[in-house]
Design goal:
It contains 8 helices and 16 strands. Helix 4 packs antiparallel against helix 6 (about 225-250) and helix 6 (about 225-250) packs across helix 7. The chain has an 8-stranded mixed beta sheet. Strands 14-13-12-15-16 form a 5-stranded mixed beta sheet, covered by helices on one side. The longest helix is centred in the C-terminal third of the chain and has 24 residues, at about 225-250. About 35% of the residues lie in helices and about 30% in strands. It has helices spanning about 70-85, 105-115, 145, 190-205, 210-220, 225-250, 265-270, 290-305; strands at about 1-5, 5-10, 15, 20, 25, 30-35, 45, 50-55, 90-100, 120-125, 125-140, 155-160, 165-175, 175-185, 260, 280. By secondary structure, it is α+β, with helices and mostly antiparallel strands.
Length: about 300
């Protein structure tokens, strides 16, 4: 969270797998109830409904405004960030983002979706929050994560942001984003998870818990039987090879440019990819994009003087 005048700038990266702020990360899932549920961990109460935040899995949707889920998850993100600073109220300016090639078409609808109520009151984790939404700024995913260090991007650079639902690719040449060379591919880490589950079922006739799959993908290994581990690792390696094939289709040439990988899927490149570590940078800060949204929002406000 950043401060500008008496506003709190809160960056929220509403991914398909996780929702991130500058300081926290939680699963992008929720379950709605008309009555108070028995278990109240991460319970959000808003507009007469009870929401258990972080349960289930949010399916991929090209349009995040098609239901109220991301609005509710954004309220939880605001509360999580305010809670860290001991606050339960304030004037908030949201800094959010959309996939690179979708920003222009969806920006205004996403703003209106999040700004439906200027004054919002809700309860989260037993605390009542009262927030005045001053405004919403929408930035391109991927680029936001490196915006604060753009001067380091000398020469030709390819940026690859691997999320749960999408993979965003763009070029940054001599510290300037190449607007005509931005691409969004529906090839996020969820595709890897689906392939792993399918191969494990076909090879071993078994279902593996997501916690095990996540551990192998994140760290490269887990305390499971070797043949199961090998199947997961081989499937993940095939997924990473496909990522590099897509990058080559988008004119990636390691001899002529540097590659900068970020997002939740960056750990897959580190664990299962074959690459020249001198020419590939992997940023595994899952909150980098949310921090970047805050940076871009603050810069824009200072340039326009609010």
């Amino acid at each position: 969270m950043k401060e500008y005048r008496d506003w709190k700038i809160i960056g929220v990266d509403t991914g398909y797998g996780n929702v991130k702020t500058a300081n926290c990360c939680f699963p992008a899932g929720l379950s709605a109830h008309s009555a108070e549920p028995a278990f109240k961990d991460d319970l959000l109460i808003y507009d007469g409904m009870y929401y258990q935040i972080g349960t289930g899995h949010k399916e991929f949707a090209a349009d995040k405004t098609r239901d109220d889920d991301y609005y509710t998850l954004t309220l939880a993100a605001i509360a999580r960030e305010l809670e860290l600073y001991g606050l339960v109220s304030g004037k908030v300016r949201l800094a959010v983002g959309l996939p690179l090639t979708w920003v222009s078409q969806q920006r205004e609808d996403f703003k209106a979706y999040l700004m439906r109520s200027r004054e919002v009151s809700f309860t989260f984790r037993g605390k009542v929050y009262r927030v005045e939404l001053i405004g919403v700024d929408v930035f391109p995913q991927g680029f936001a994560a490196v915006a604060s260090q753009i001067k380091d991007f000398q020469g030709v650079n390819m940026l690859c942001d691997i999320g749960n639902g999408t993979m965003n690719i763009m070029f940054i040449n001599d510290c300037k984003p190449a607007a005509e060379r931005m691409f969004t591919e529906k090839y996020g880490t969820h595709q890897c998870m689906l392939a792993v589950r399918e191969n494990v079922m076909r090879t071993h006739h078994a279902t593996v818990d997501d916690s095990i799959l996540n551990r192998v993908l994140r760290f490269g290994t887990a305390d499971i039987q070797e043949d199961y581990l090998r199947t997961i690792q081989e499937t993940a390696a095939e997924y990473v090879r496909e990522i590099f094939r897509i990058l080559r289709e988008r004119e990636y040439n390691p001899a002529l440019m540097r590659l900068y990988v970020l997002g939740g899927g960056s750990c897959l490149i580190r664990n299962f990819g074959e690459y020249d570590a001198d020419r590939v940078t992997i940023d595994e800060d899952i909150c980098a994009t949310a921090k970047g949204y805050e940076f871009l929002c603050e810069q824009a406000l200072r340039r326009s003087k609010g």
